[in-house]
Design brief:
- The protein has 417 residues and is an alpha/beta fold.
- The chain has 2 domains: 278 residues, UDP-N-acetylmuramoyl-L-alanine:D-glutamate ligase, CATH 3.40.1190; 127 residues, Mur ligase, C-terminal domain (Protein-Tyrosine Phosphatase, Chain A), CATH 3.90.190.20.
- 41% of the residues lie in helices and 17% in strands.
- It contains 15 helices and 17 strands.
- It has an 8-stranded mixed β-sheet with strand order 4-3-2-5-1-6-7-8, with helices on both faces.
- Strand 12 and strand 13 form a beta hairpin.
- Helix 3 crosses helix 10, helix 4 packs across helix 5 and helix 11 runs parallel beside helix 12.
- The chain is globular.
- The chain starts with a helix and ends with a helix.
C-alpha cells in the first residue's frame, strides 16, 4: 500500500475537528495553493454536490479544465478529486498526501481526514491541472477546511436540519454556520428560504456581499428536468435539459445556472449558451436517483435527512404516480430517523431495514422498530449484502436509500460481481 494512502487510512474518517487553524498553517507552508486558481465554494444542507457537478460539467464543456472536489466518496477515495470528470490517480493522490503528512509533522499539527484530502486537492488543482476549482463544503461552512479559499462567489444551496450535534439545533443556528462561507464584497448565490434566508441576508449585508436569491433574482419554470426554463437577470433560457433526475434537481440546476451567470457577469468569464446546454445535459453524479435497473426500476439515492427524503418521495411519485416502492434502508445513528421514515412512507409499501459497515450506523433492529411506526410491512436483515440480494431479486419498484455509505457499499458490491 502507498505510504500516503496508508497514512490517510490511519485517520478517523468520521472525526470532526472544527476550525481553520490547522488547514491554514498547512496551506501557508505549502505556498497557499488554494489561492493559485479561481474557485467556487458551495455550501448547503442538500444538493451541493449536484450543483458542484453541474457547474464543473458546464465549465468543462466550455473548454476549461474544471477541478471538482466533493465528499464523501462512494467507492474510491479518488472520486473526491477530479479534473474534467477524471479521478486523480491513486499514486498521485498518495504522493500529495505524503507531502501533507510531512508538513503536518514538521508543524506538529494533527489534521483530520478531511483536512488532509482538502490540502491534497488544493495542491493538485494548483499544479497546473485545473483552470477552476469547484469546491463542495464538507459540513457547515464557517469552520470547514474548504472555507480557506477566497472564491469568485459563494453558494448556499439551502438550509435544513442535519448534523445538528455540530451545527446547531435550529434552522437559524445552522444557517449561521453555513453563512460562514460568505466573503466581504464577493457575491453569494442562494436557494435558501424563510428564516435561513434572513440569516444569510443579514450576514451578506454586514459583509457587503451582493446576494442573488432564487425566487427574487432568478427562477425556473417546469415540472421536470427534461425541458424546463430558467430566467435570471441577464440570461433567459428555455427548453433546458438537466441529466440528473428528480423534481428537486430543478432547484439545483437553477442554482448552478445562476452561479455561472454571475461569474460570467462579475468576472467576465466566457460562457456561451451552447456549452451551458450541453454541459447541463451531460452531468454525471452517482448515487442520486441512479438507476441500476429500469424495468421494474431499482433506484439508488443518498437521501439521508428529512428534506432529502421528501425530495426523493416526491420525485418517485412524480416519475411513477401509480406505484408503491420496496425500500432498502440503512442509516447513520445521528439522523432524525422518524422524520426521514415519515417522508419515505408516503411511497413505501414495504421496507427492508439493514445495517451499515460503519460504527456510526444505527442498528438494523432499532431502525426496524422505528420504521414499524410508519409502514406495516417491515423486514430486518442486518447484513446489507443479504438485504441487497433479496431486494435485487424482487420484481417490484425498488429503491435503496438512507445513507451515502449504504449506496457506496452497494456500488462496491455491484462492481465486484
Amino acid at each position: 500500500m502507498n505510504e500516503g494512502i496508508a497514512y490517510l487510512q490511519s485517520l478517523d474518517l468520521f472525526r470532526v475537528k472544527p476550525g481553520l487553524d490547522r488547514i491554514k498553517k498547512i496551506a501557508q507552508y505549502l505556498g497557499n495553493p488554494q489561492d493559485k486558481i479561481p474557485s467556487i465554494l458551495i455550501a448547503g444542507t442538500n444538493g451541493k454536490g449536484s450543483v458542484a457537478a453541474a457547474i464543473a460539467s458546464v465549465l468543462e464543456t466550455q473548454g476549461y479544465r474544471a477541478g471538482l472536489y466533493t465528499s464523501p466518496h462512494l467507492v474510491r477515495v479518488t472520486e473526491r478529486i477530479k479534473v474534467n470528470g477524471q479521478e486523480i490517480a491513486i499514486d498521485e493522490l498518495s504522493s500529495l498526501i505524503s507531502e501533507v503528512k510531512r508538513v503536518s509533522e514538521h508543524l506538529l499539527i494533527e489534521p483530520s481526514y478531511f483536512e488532509v484530502l482538502t490540502a491534497a486537492a488544493f495542491m493538485y488543482f494548483a499544479l497546473g491541472k485545473a483552470d477552476f476549482a469547484v469546491l463542495e463544503v464538507g459540513m457547515g461552512g464557517r469552520w470547514d477546511a474548504t472555507n480557506l479559499v477566497l472564491p469568485l462567489c459563494s453558494v448556499i444551496t439551502n438550509v435544513s436540519m442535519d448534523h445538528t450535534q455540530f451545527l446547531g439545533e435550529s434552522i437559524e443556528e445552522i444557517a449561521h454556520e453555513k453563512a460562514g462561507v460568505i466573503k466581504p464584497g464577493i457575491p453569494t448565490i442562494t436557494g435558501a428560504k424563510g428564516e435561513a434566508l434572513g440569516v444569510i441576508h443579514a450576514t451578506a449585508k454586514e459583509l457587503s456581499s451582493p446576494t442573488v436569491v432564487m425566487g427574487r433574482d432568478f427562477y425556473f419554470q417546469g415540472e421536470t428536468t427534461e425541458g424546463f426554463d430558467y430566467y435570471g437577470k441577464k440570461w433567459q433560457l428555455e427548453h433546458l435539459n438537466f441529466s440528473l433526475r428528480g423534481i428537486h434537481q430543478l432547484e439545483n440546476a437553477s442554482i448552478a445556472i445562476a452561479t455561472l451567470e454571475n461569474i460570467s457577469k462579475f468576472h467576465g468569464i466566457r460562457l456561451d449558451e451552447k456549452a451551458l446546454r450541453k454541459g447541463l445535459s451531460a452531468v454525471k453524479w452517482e448515487g442520486r436517483i441512479e438507476f441500476i435497473r429500469y424495468d421494474p426500476p431499482f433506484i439508488l439515492d443518498g437521501a439521508h435527512n428529512q428534506d432529502g427524503a421528501r425530495a426523493l418521495s416526491l420525485s418517485l411519485h412524480s416519475m411513477y404516480p401509480d406505484a408503491q416502492f420496496t425500500f432498502l434502508i440503512g442509516m447513520l445513528n445521528d439522523k432524525d430517523h422518524e422524520k426521514y421514515l415519515r417522508e419515505i412512507s408516503e411511497v413505501a409499501e414495504r421496507i427492508i431495514i439493514t445495517g451499515l459497515l460503519s460504527k456510526r450506523g444505527i442498528s438494523a433492529e432499532r431502525l426496524g422498530e422505528i420504521a414499524r411506526g410508519y409502514v406495516q410491512e417491515i423486514e430486518v436483515i442486518e447484513d446489507f449484502r443479504q438485504a441487497f440480494s433479496k431486494v435485487k431479486n424482487l420484481s417490484t419498484h425498488s429503491c435503496a436509500t438512507g445513507s451515502l455509505y449504504l449506496i457506496g457499499a452497494i456500488k462496491s458490491l455491484i462492481n465486484s460481481d
